[in-house]
Design brief:
Largest sheet: 7 strands, mixed
Order of helices and strands: EEEEEEEEEEE
Distance between the termini: 37 Å
Structural class: mainly beta
Number of helices: 0
Strand content: over 45%
Oligomer: single chain
Radius of gyration: 13 Å
């Protein structure tokens, strides 16, 4: 099982980024995919999830600014992040979940700073 995130970068407040997570080694279509983030000195927190049928849920802190999507043909989940602010600075992790099984990627760093 492998999850590889990319797309993290340094961006100015108000800017946008799109994160990608490419999956391999499991049946991607069967898994709900989610994004989580962890800022320095803080616990990892939920950001967004997309189910196998495309149903989405967001943390209140990102609702209206972030959009999660998936491309089952490419085994990829995306996180479009708009109107970024300093509180979005964190390492972003992709997670695959199916029943009681979870798999995590290594993360990609997003830094929002002027």
């Amino acid at each position: 099982v492998q999850l590889v995130e990319s797309g993290g970068d340094l961006v100015q407040p108000g800017g946008s980024l799109r994160l990608s997570c490419v999956a391999a080694g499991f049946t991607f279509n069967n898994y709900a995919m989610s994004w989580h983030r962890q800022a320095p000195g803080k616990e990892r927190e939920f950001v967004a999830i997309i189910g196998t049928r495309g149903t989405t849920t967001y943390a209140d802190s990102v609702k209206g600014r972030f959009t999660i999507s998936r491309d089952n043909a490419k085994n990829t989940v995306y996180l479009q992040m708009n109107n970024l602010n300093s509180e979005d600075t964190a390492k972003y992790y992709c997670r695959a979940q199916y029943l009681g099984s979870y798999h995590w990627g290594q993360g990609t760093q997003v830094t929002v700073s002027s």
